[in-house]
Structures are given as C-alpha cells and as structure tokens.
Amino acid sequence: MREAVRTVVAITGASGIAYGIKFLENLPGERVLVVSEMAKKILPRETGIALEELYAMADEVYSDDDLFAPISSGSHRFDAMIVIPCSASSLGKIACGLADTLITRAAAVALKESRKLVLVVRETPKSAVLLENELRLARAGAVILDANPGFYHKPKTVDDVVSFVAGRALDQLGVEHALYEKWS
Ligand SMILES: Cc1cc2nc3c(=O)[nH]c(=O)nc-3n(C[C@H](O)[C@H](O)[C@H](O)COP(=O)(O)O)c2cc1C
Predict the structure, then answer these.
(1) 79 falls within a domain
(2) Which mutation among 42, 87, 91 tests ligand 1's pocket best, with the greatest number of atoms within 8 A of CB?
(3) 118 with 81: CB under 8 angstroms?
(4) Which of 34, 47, 67, 89 most suits a substitution to test ligand 1, by most atoms within 8 Å of the C-beta?
(5) Which end of the chain has fewer CB atoms at under 10 Å, N or C?
(6) Residue 1, pLDDT score
C-alpha cells in the first residue's frame, strides 16, 4: 500500500490522548493537526506534554472552530484522516453528517471524497447508539479501530500498550514502523 503523504490527524476529547501523540511521533509525510477543545483540556490530565509541544509535532495546525481551513474543502487534497482518540460524541456527529467543527467537517470531506478515514474509538462499554453509529460509518467506508490493545507481544510498559494501538493505526495507512512486533 502507498504511504499516505498528507494526513489529517484529529485528537478529540476521549481518554487516551497518548495514542494520538504516539501516532503523530511515528507518522511520516505532512501532518495536519486539529485538537478539539475537550482534548486540549484532557491533554494535561493524562500526559506531561504541553499543547505547544503537541503542535510542534505537526507541519500544520488548525483550530477546531476554523471552518475556513483548507481541509474543510473537498477541493483541497489530503490523502487520509485519522481521529485518534475518537470520542463517542465526535463519532456520532460524523455518523450523522453533522459538520459544525473542523474535525467533523474534514471527516465528512474524507467520506464524500472516498478518502481513507480511520476512527480510533475509546469508549467502553458501548451503547446500542454508539454501536449503530460505528456500523453506519463502517458501511460508509470508515475504518473503526478500537483503542483495544493485544497482548501477544507481551507488553511490559504502558508505552508498549500505547505503541500497539498506535502501530495498528499506522498499519491502516500503510506506514512501516517498529512500534510492536508483528505476529509471525
Ligand atoms: C476526563 C474526561 C475523559 C473523557 N473520556 C472519554 C472517552 O474515553 N470516550 C468518550 O467517548 N468520551 C469521553 N469524554 C467525554 C467527551 O470529552 C465529551 O463527549 C466531549 O463532548 C467530546 O468532544 P470532542 O469530541 O469534540 O472532543 C471524557 C470527558 C472527560 C472530561
């Protein structure tokens, strides 16, 4: 698979911001970053990383209320989009076609333009509403990738667990990495 060259990375207000950071750190190519307002609030609670440090990992950064940003338009090229972690709220909006934030609008663009859209969902247990929203998006072509680590690689640290999920997300974009040992 061709490596995505320009990827929109959205971080929403679910637990597991570390997944998004690990993913960004290992993503090649141009990285366009959008962080939701709730994600900005959860970031300091879960990580020791300042918002400015997170922004410095990307090539371009846009505010989630900036619907004039280039990625808001289908005529502007990006190769893939990932929401990592993806809240049930953002997933629900995307499933319903609501596009009132840059993250949900860019996801709508990815769907309508048939570009790769990966949603790394972090919620448990899942209500029938969330499950139906996930099914709707899967049928529309999105990849629903639960933040759900495997243990066959015998993780020893939290970082190993985070790396597994981030690595599975990178796999979806065809990116080579060494974040976890592949089963052989
Ligand atoms: C500390 C904290 C942790 C949260 N974790 C989750 C979560 O893991 N999954 C989820 O779907 N929502 C979670 N939420 C709720 C979302 O932040 C909330 O639904 C918010 O509106 C999501 O907005 P966003 O998708 O625009 O970031 C959490 C909220 C807080 C305050």
Answers:
(1) yes
(2) 87
(3) yes
(4) 89
(5) C
(6) 47
Residue 12 CA: nearest ligand 1 atom is 27
184 Cα: distance to centroid of ligand 1 (angstroms): 36
Residue whose Cα lies nearest atom 23 of ligand 1: it is 13
As averages over each run of 10 residues, the pLDDT of the chain (184 residues) reads 77 98 97 98 97 98 98 96 98 98 98 98 98 98 97 94 98 94 82
Ligand 1 atom with least separation from CA of 13: 27
Host H or E run for residue 151: none
* Amino acid, res. 166: A
Interatomic CA distance for residues 155 and 50, integer angstroms: 27
> What is this structure's pTM?
0.97
d(CA 19, CA 133): 22
In a domain, 107, yes or no: yes
In a domain, 178, yes or no: no
Number of domains in the chain: 1
CATH number at residue 92: 3.40.50.1950
